[in-house]
Input
Amino acid sequence: MSIVANPGAVVLLTWQSKLGETNLFPQAVIKDDSGNTKATVNLTHDSNGAYTGTTALLNSEGIYRVQYIAFVDSGHTTQSGVDEIISESISIQHSWRPSFGGGGEVVIPKEILDPIVKGMKLLAEEMMKIKAELDKKSEFNPNKDMVKTDIQPTSMRPIMEKIDNIPNKITIARQ
Output
């Protein structure tokens, strides 16, 4: 299994006892790729032998390994003889998910946002050049020429009002 999270995000750690035991004291030991222990999390019983805990101590991007070790005592000195040590990876990486409405806030990392803004500016400049060129060549005058079509006039106002009412905050991440 693998967990993916942003740096500094709260990571949920879960472990299930094989026999559904509720009297164990499991720990999650998180190590970086050099084998250095980054965090030790004491898991608490949730239900039916499932134990959970959280950590927000992983602030650097990278791959971490978490080992779940079950103990029979609260001092974490004697391992459970029934449950094996289980391991999984945690990938900490910057990622973003756009939010369309719903009142959420989107944080777009600067290294992602800057190229997008630059590309949009270049695109806008090119579009203005093309528009100016087309305006010179076109003989069509929308103020006096008519185009015949069977398309009925439609107002976009109701749709635009609904779009304008969707809350959407964008925060630019600063380095």
Observations:
- The chain has two domains: 2-92, 96-138+154-175.
- The first helix runs from residue 110 to 137.
- The chain has a mean pLDDT of 82.
